[in-house]
Amino acid sequence: MGTRVTTDGNGKNADEPYVITGRGQDAAPKNAFSLFADVNYNAGGPRTKILVIPANGTANNFSDYGFDQSDDGVSSVVNNTGRDNILFTRTNQGGSQLPVPANSSITDLTRIPLSGSPTSTWNDQAQSALAFNKPVPLPVFTAPKPSAQTQERRQTVQGNAAPDVQQVLLHEGTRLLGTCPVKDSTWEYTPDTDWPLGQHDLSAIAVRDDVLSGKAPLRFYVVLPTPVVDIRSPKEGTEVDSGATVDGVAFNADTVTLTEGATQLGTAKVNSNLWSFAREGGWSPGKHSVTAKAVRGGQESAPETVNFTAANKNLTVESTFNSSWQDWQTHKYIHSYDVTLYAGDTDVKHWHVGFGQLPDGSVLAPEFEASFWGMVIHDGSDGNVVLGSPPEGVHIVPAKGHLTLRVLVLIPTQDEAYKKLYGLFAKSLTE
Question: Where is this region: Disordered (predicted)?
């Protein structure tokens, strides 16, 4: 079969992954690790995407490059480099590993066994990869401690890194805060301006000779003795379902009051610094601007406002808390939730569903991960869980019907606050 290749996009630098389309093993570029979306190098199937990772490159999350697990997956690979490469079943170089020897290829990953995967094989399971054979260990945060509440407005962030690491890149969300030199295996960052009050989600990436590690997460809070409020969901400027809740964190507060313009919307109780507000009857379609204030006694926080658009979507979601019990191995508590997806007028074959604001130390329960038939995109270790449908579209949400997932999450403690899920969302990938 002849080879047809077109470039969809290219990276920001020579080692940045990018996606092309093509069929046949010859479509794999030289000196790169190429991941094909179909078996036999896309030669006979309907999918044509190829994720190309140049030598010395890293793809910590295939979805970052438009190679989405629920639609694409990895079914065959070509290693056109002189070094062994590695596939991982989790983002940021986590989970199980599959070495792909130098100058070799794998025609069909359905023939490579993988214990615990939905198909018992490596087909469609890889979510991150290296185009070199020496992963860089994750950096470690030493200060502040996970979930720390600090009144130090210029709190220093410190950590350790492997001896051969030269620098650590520190991010908050997608924003680069600083490039931190590593000396004697330690690094630190002190901001030039005050940290904003509220929750901060940082990530650190170790760099060795321009080779990157995965992302190490850290969450901490900057607080004052007075009330502080932060809206975490919906995100600013996003479109949400009309039944979406407004969720967030608050400190030194008993309640959070919510308004829209001059309209009083209601009050949410604060439990373990978490709060959530569901508007009775849902949000009317269109734009909304909601303001929250944390309250304790006669004290009020500064206002926090989020702007979003409400719409009636074809895919919606709700959750129900079932029960919790102590896990004898970890001494943490397994929390059981039923997460139910509802479809409107059409089937939803490919979807993502997730939630966030989990306390540090949380993770999906191992028994759930071992039995779940879809994709685990985020396992809760960074505070967020994101699950995806299997690429085959077997587990669809039928039109006018529903699909229920029983999700088990391992959380360090039991608390009333953890009887609901925060930032719960569902996304149809066909919308």
Answer: 1-21
